[in-house]
């Protein structure tokens, strides 16, 4: 493998160009010598004319002309070498520039392909972690965020609330107006939940007409009840669908961390159970209530 040029190993092109410059300096000296010889020859001819002689001896003229001619030819040969070397150097520089240009194009194409790949990866991750119909986080992402929230709440002593929402009489909309109408209602409900949630909270579609809402560090139980009431009012606002209007309400069950469970699965299960307690009265909410353990009365002593 050919080693790459470095600071201590000049490239062949650089060596050739340096040699050409040195050669051109030598040619310059030779040209100056020729000029000096011509000057001397001219001065000698002028001196002889001044003394009344009109010509130099023929053999001396021939010798002088031959010597000067040799020098001039040497200069011409050297100049041709310099010219050829420079031409080769310029050609090599052009080859290098072309190679660099191709490398830059290849790098740009690689960066573009990498950007497309990363974008595709982001899209894939988004699709894997979000509900396709509503765009909300799906249950997988919700469970992950709930687990992180429980770890933080356990560390800092926070309260958490998990609300389980089920849309009342949603099946009637699907049956009476078609699944397109039902999908439109689900999308609007998802948008209303998103607009109500804080940045630290998470809402997700649990499937069908069920949604989950994670509240991070609410101030109190009463604060959770207040937020649940706001969510109910937001969802219950009329939903336009073409010339029709739908009014739908959610039944909400609520479980609190840590008293109603210290794991995500248990909190969701208890919130689900509380939702079924609220279901007989559509549009209401209920907190989870742990069953009271029955105590068998002691037998009276004889």
State the helicity in percent bands.
55-70%
For the biggest β-sheet, the strand order reads 2-3-1-6-7
* Arithmetic mean of pLDDT: 84
Compute the number of strand runs. Answer: 7
Strand content: 5-15%
What characterizes the major β-sheet? Answer: 5 strands, mixed
Q: Please state the structural category.
A: alpha+beta
What general outline do the C-alpha atoms trace? rod-shaped
The SSE order reads HHHEHHEEHEEEHE
Distance between the termini: 105 Å
Describe this entry's structure for a reader.
The chain has 302 residues and is α+β, with helices and mostly antiparallel strands. It contains seven helices and seven strands. A five-stranded mixed β-sheet has the order 2-3-1-6-7, with helices on both faces. Strands 4-5 form a two-stranded antiparallel ribbon. The radius of gyration is 47 Å and the shape is rod-shaped. The mean pLDDT is 84.
